[in-house]
């Protein structure tokens, strides 16, 4: 015979078992419906992988400065850099203007950098043909990559920007003479508007609008202008800061309103004026894309090659973060600016591309020993 305590125990056990069973059934139903939902959440084609890049907190730099150092991981775009956003925007704009209408239509660009790779990728997936003009001393790795992506590669001898045989000028004249599209990343406003329409809003959403500084380098100027134009009206206290490598005139343009670099002082001009290991950022003229946001840039930080090289070693050893040369410049500048404004701030920068794009030049020069401390890097 069961005692009354035993009967109560059995009743409780029955209800517990019944509840658990119902709970498990509900969980499995939820799981099924979630699975069905997520299986519908499929990205349609490679262009769907462009943008919506993660914002990652760089632990070593954040811990060392007392600021939240956040970086937009643009190397996670399918073509490996933010230039995917720009290439897609340029092609979409050309299509909208009726300049690209059928498979086999040509897109010309003069570039030895990431834009060529992104254009080749987008042209391939849309059925167009990218024709990329580049200097004949561009690494074979890059030429191979472009050709594997289906681009026509035309190598030309290095020449100054005013020379009609310079690679950008050749690309422009080829496009004009064949009535084809000239992508023109430096002057084409589809560039900064891509960052205004996507990169800026993504940063705002990812930080809930809580950031004190946006800092990055400028090549065409598309990134800094587009992001600044989107974020500044929403966050009036935001400081926009330029990171500038050796040989570039932009630092002085921002600080003093004139385009001048110390390497250009009288008697010191060389044939290759920009004598730096950094690729993708730094320029000595004001492009339409830089001009679009120039007035919104509050400050600039200059970074040396040696600092960038030491930073690459610092980040790979402390964070396992393998970065390219322009990213190294951004990270030095971010650390310097964080030290200047003090702890408690949120600073957003850009991880432009991965070190894998820079194995044959930049990474050959990166030191391999134990990394310097952040203070040592900033004081070299
Ligand atoms: C690797 C890399 N980083 C940074 C930049 C600079 O970006 P933006 O052209 O938007 O100024 C470029 C531009 O070419 C680049 O190729």
Which SSEs are present, and which pair or pack?
Layout: H1 4-40, E1 55-57, H2 59-65, E2 68-73, H3 83-96, E3 106-110, H4 114-126, E4 129-135, H5 140-148, E5 152-156, H6 167-177, E6 181-182, H7 190-206, E7 213-217, H8 222-234, E8 239-244, H9 250-256, H10 288-291, E9 299-302, H11 305-319, H12 325-341, E10 346-351, H13 362-365, H14 374-378
Parallel strand pairs: 2-10, 3-4, 3-6, 4-5, 7-8, 7-10, 8-9
Antiparallel strand pairs: 1-2
The chain binds pyridoxal-5'-phosphate.
Residues 81, 113-115, 217-223, 280-281, 324, 326, 352-353 line the site of pyridoxal-5'-phosphate.
Keywords, separated by commas or semicolons:
10 strands; Rossmann fold; 380 residues; 14 helices; 4-stranded parallel sheet; alpha/beta; 2 domains; 6-stranded mixed sheet; binds pyridoxal-5'-phosphate
């Amino acid at each position: 015979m069961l005692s009354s305590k035993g009967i109560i125990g059995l009743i409780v056990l029955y209800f517990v078992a019944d509840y658990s069973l119902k709970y498990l059934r509900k969980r499995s139903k939820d799981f099924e419906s979630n699975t069905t939902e997520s299986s519908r959440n499929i990205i349609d084609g490679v262009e769907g992988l462009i943008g919506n890049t993660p914002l990652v907190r760089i632990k070593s730099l954040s811990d060392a400065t007392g600021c939240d150092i956040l970086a937009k991981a643009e190397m996670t775009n399918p073509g490996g850099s933010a230039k995917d956003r720009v290439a897609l925007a340029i092609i979409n704009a050309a299509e909208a203007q009726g300049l690209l209408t059928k498979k086999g239509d040509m897109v010309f660009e003069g570039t030895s950098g990431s834009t060529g790779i992104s254009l080749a990728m987008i042209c391939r997936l849309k059925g167009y043909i990218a024709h990329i003009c580049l200097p004949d001393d561009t690494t074979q790795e890059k030429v191979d990559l472009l050709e594997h992506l289906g681009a026509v590669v035309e190598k030309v001898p290095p020449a100054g920007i005013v020379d009609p045989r310079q690679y950008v000028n050749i690309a422009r004249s080829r496009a004009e003479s064949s009535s084809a599209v000239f992508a023109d990343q430096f002057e084409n406003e589809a560039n900064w508007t891509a960052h205004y329409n996507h990169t800026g809003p993504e940063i705002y959403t990812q930080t809930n609008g809580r950031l004190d500084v946006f800092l990055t380098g400028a090549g065409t100027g598309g990134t800094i202008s587009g992001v600044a134009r989107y974020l500044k009206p929403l966050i009036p206290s935001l400081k926009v800061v330029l990171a500038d490598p050796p040989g570039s005139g932009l630092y002085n343009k921002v600080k003093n309103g004139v385009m001048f670099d110390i390497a250009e002082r009288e008697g010191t001009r060389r044939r290759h004026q920009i004598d730096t290991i950094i690729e993708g950022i730094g320029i000595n003229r004001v492009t339409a894309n830089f001009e679009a946001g120039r007035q919104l840039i509050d400050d600039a930080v200059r970074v040396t090659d040696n600092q960038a090289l030491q930073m690459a070693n610092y980040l790979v050893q402390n964070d396992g973060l393998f970065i390219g040369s322009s990213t190294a410049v951004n990270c030095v500048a971010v650390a310097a600016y964080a030290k200047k404004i003090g702890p408690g701030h949120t600073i957003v920068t850009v991880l432009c591309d991965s070190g894998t794009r820079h194995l044959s030049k930049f990474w050959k020069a990166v030191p391999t020993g134990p990394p310097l401390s952040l203070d040592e890097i900033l004081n070299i």
